[in-house]
Amino acid sequence: MRARIFQPPKTAMQSGWGNTKDWAMEFIPTHGRRADPLMGWTGGGDTQTQVRLSFDSREEAVAFAERAGIRYDVELPQTRHVKPKAYADNFKYSRIENWTH
User: At the N or C end, where does the chain have fewer CB atoms within 10 A?
Assistant: First the structure.
């Protein structure tokens, strides 16, 4: 049983950075997924892949994994580069227009 500890990114539906400070632990699948011959649904026998644990910090997640005897990989988040923008910049006189009619 192996798990990965990571900081989930914001979803595409979020505009702000809320709820992106937590850390998560997910189990890595040990069995491949297969199509059910009767219904055709994709599934597998590994129910641990359905479990996702949330933690307030990376240290808490690592401590939990070590207490439970779970082997883990820690994925560090990528740095975020946010360019400050102002709405008024859309209407600046010196704004470059690339229009062709």
Answer: C
Rounded Cα gap, residues 44 and 65, in angstroms: 24
Cross-strand partners of 34: 43
CA dist., res. 49 & res. 54, Å (int): 14
Q: What angle do CA 90, 14, 52 make, to 5 degrees?
A: 160
Tens-place pLDDT, residues 6-64 = 998 877 776 777 767 899 999 988 888 888 888 888 887 788 888 999 999 999 999 99
Residue 83: how many CA atoms within 13 Å on its side-chain side?
3
Q: Is the pLDDT of residue 65 over 80?
A: yes
